[in-house]
Amino acid sequence: MYYRFPITRPRRLRSSRVIRNMVSETSLSPSNLVLPIFVKDEGSIEQINSMPGQYRYPIGDELIKAINDAVESGVRAFLLFGVTKSKDPLGSLAYDKNGPVPKALRLLKENFGDSIILMTDVCLCDYTEHGHCGVVEYRDPVQVTQTTSQPKYVVNNDATISIYAKIAVNYAEAGANVVAPSGMMDGQVKAIREALDNNGFTDVIIMSYSSKYASTFYGPFREAADSAPRFGDRRSYQMDPRNAYEALKEVSMDLEEGADIVMVKPAMPYLDVIRLVKQHYPEVPLAAYQVSGEYSMIKAAALNGWLNEKMAVIESLIAIKRAGANIIITYYAKEASRWINEVESIL
Question: Where is the signal peptide (predicted)?
Fold first, then answer.
C-alpha cells in the first residue's frame, strides 16, 4: 500500500508577523543595552571623527542632557570612559578623586540618583603617556639589541593590578554601581574585589572584561579616548584572536576571584566565543561589547547608502543576544532602544 506522508512546512510558523513574534526564540529589550559615554576634564563638547554621532562630553550640562536623552529612549545603564590630556607614566589621574570619571559620577548621581546604573571602565590606557594598560618598565638598552627577540619594555602585571584596585575604590566612592576592569592583567579581579570589600563597598559589582581580544576593531575607540599605545602593542596581555577555549580559562579565573559579570569583547567577530562561554557558564550574566569598529562600519555603510542602518543595527544586536549575551554594550544603545519596537513590526 502506498502511504503519503504529510509535508513538514516550517513556513506555517512564518506566515504572519504576529506568529513570527509569538514563536521567536530571541528577544531584545532596551534593558539589555548599555551606552558607553566619553567624559573629558576640559573644553567643550567634541564630536569623535571616526565615530559619527558619538561625542566627548565635558562634565556639565551637555553630559546631563546626553544621559537624559538616552534615558528617555529607554536606556538605563551607562559605561563611562575618561578622556584627558593630563597623562603621566602611572596614569595617576585615573585614581584622582578629581579626575573626569569621579566628577562625572558625582554629577550624574546628583541628577539621576538610583534611576540609572553607572558603570566605569577600570584601566590605565586612557591616562598613561605611553598608552599601555599598565605600568611599563623599560629594559636596559645595552642588554636588548635589535638582534634579540626580547622586548625593550614589559608591562608589569602585579604593579598594575594594585593601581587598578585604587581606581576601583575611587570610582566606588564617587558612586559607581559597577566597576569593569578591562586591562586583562592576571589577578585584577581578586585585587579589586579585596580592595572594594576592605573599604566597605561589598555591594559594588565587578563586570570583568574576561575575554578581551587583541583586536583591530578597537581603532576608533583609541582615537576617541586618545588611548593608542605610543609604541608596541597589547598582544602580551590581550587575548590571541586565534584562541577560543582559552576564554573559558580566563572566565573561570575571574569567577573564582569574585567577578559578578563576565564579558567577551569584541562581539560580532567573536560570536562563537560568546556561545562557548554561555554554554559552559549558563548561570553567569554575560556581557558582550559591540566595539567602536563594529559601530563605525555600520555607520559608514549607512551614511553611504549601502545598507539600512536601523535594520543592520537590530540584526547585529539580535545576533549577539542569540549567541548568549545577557548584556550588550553598544554605541547604538540609544537609537536601538527606539528602534526595537519599530523593527519588530517589520520582521
Answer: none
Which ranges of the chain have pLDDT less than 70?
1-5, 140-151, 344-347
Please name the residue that has the C-alpha cell 599605545: 229
Total count of domains within the chain: 1
- The candidate with the shortest Cα–Cα distance to 176, out of 109, 125, 110, is 109
Judge whether 213 is annotated as a binding position. no
Provide the annotated active-site residues: 212, 265
Enumerate residues 6+ apart whose C-beta is below 8 A from 85. 42, 226
Per-residue model confidence as pLDDT tens digits over 141-172: 545 455 555 568 889 999 999 999 999 999 99
CB contact at 8 A, 274 and 199: no
C-alpha–C-alpha distance, residues 134 and 69, integer Å: 35
> 159 lies in a domain?
yes
The verdict on whether residue 44 carries a ligand-binding annotation is no
pTM: 0.92
Question: Is 237 among the annotated ligand-binding positions?
Answer: no
* Pairwise CA distance, residues 166 & 84, whole Å: 18
Q: Is residue 21 part of a domain?
A: no
Residue type for 309, please?
A: E
CATH of the domain at 257: 3.20.20.70
Q: Please check whether residue 229 lies inside any domain of the structure.
A: yes
- Looking at residue 9, its pLDDT comes to 85
Copy the grid coordinates of residue 178. 559597577
> What does the pLDDT read at residue 144?
45
Domain extent at residue 258? 28-344
